[in-house]
């Protein structure tokens, strides 16, 4: 009886933990999809390597209210971190950037995007390589597409000599990533990858665009 009771208690505990974890994840995803409507914000979508890095960069920009890590650009439904890691789902690690257009423009966000990664790398950003880390600038409408295309043309002429490999794709579906990926850099500052890759990338961006940064909270 004691063994049976122990098994039952362990099973109940595991089911409870699973429910809480799924429920919290669902709440985070619901928050991600509703935040724009609640604050009358616009949403831009960008992929340029590890979404931990990209999320932290955009969240440092004045006028950006929230950045959500997720998946987009693929051909399968309900992708997960494990599935896109195979490179077979077509998705790229993508960040949804919720911004106030009265404070920061879409053009500025595109400038941030191109100023914070190497767009000439076809599949990846050092040290992460594979189609899930490729560079994609998503657009929601023709105006956004024109801004992206115009920026690429300008940068190809002035800096990259026609070598920009960024895909320019209409956003069809964005899937928020698992809860543990959200705000990863801020919540895990001592993670080796964060220390050696994410934070240096963020600091390079801050040094390049100090005029776009939010004021430090004291």
TrEMBL record:
Its EC number is 1.8.4.11. InterPro entries: Met_Sox_Rdtase_MsrA_dom (IPR002569), Met_Sox_Rdtase_MsrA_sf (IPR036509). It catalyses: L-methionyl-[protein] + [thioredoxin]-disulfide + H2O = L-methionyl-(S)-S-oxide-[protein] + [thioredoxin]-dithiol; [thioredoxin]-disulfide + L-methionine + H2O = L-methionine (S)-S-oxide + [thioredoxin]-dithiol. It comes from the Bacteria. The active site is at residue 50. Has an important function as a repair enzyme for proteins that have been inactivated by oxidation. Catalyzes the reversible oxidation-reduction of methionine sulfoxide in proteins to methionine. Belongs to the MsrA Met sulfoxide reductase family. This is Peptide methionine sulfoxide reductase MsrA. The lineage of its organism: Bacteria, Pseudomonadati, Bacteroidota, Flavobacteriia, Flavobacteriales. The gene is msrA.
């Amino acid at each position: 009886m004691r063994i049976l009771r122990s098994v039952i208690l362990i099973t109940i505990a595991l089911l409870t933990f699973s429910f809480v974890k799924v429920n919290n994840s669902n709440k985070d995803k619901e928050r991600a999809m509703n935040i724009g409507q609640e604050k009358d914000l616009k949403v831009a979508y960008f992929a340029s390597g590890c979404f931990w890095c990209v999320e932290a960069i955009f969240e440092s920009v004045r006028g950006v209210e929230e950045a959500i890590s997720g998946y987009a650009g693929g051909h399968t439904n309900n992708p997960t971190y494990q599935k896109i890691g195979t490179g077979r789902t077509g998705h790229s690690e993508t960040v949804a950037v919720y911004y106030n257009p009265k404070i920061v423009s879409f053009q500025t966000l595109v400038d941030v995007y191109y100023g914070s990664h190497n767009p000439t790398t076809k599949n990846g950003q050092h040290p992460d390589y594979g189609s899930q880390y490729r560079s994609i600038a998503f657009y929601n409408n023709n105006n956004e597409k024109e801004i992206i295309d115009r920026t690429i043309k300008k940068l190809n002429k002035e800096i990259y000599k026609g070598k920009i490999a960024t895909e320019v794709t209409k956003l069809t579906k964005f899937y928020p990533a698992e809860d543990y990926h959200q705000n990863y850099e801020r919540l895990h500052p001592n993670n080796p990858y964060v220390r050696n890759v994410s934070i240096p990338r963020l600091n390079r961006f801050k040094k390049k665009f100090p005029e776009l940064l939010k004021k430090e909270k004291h």
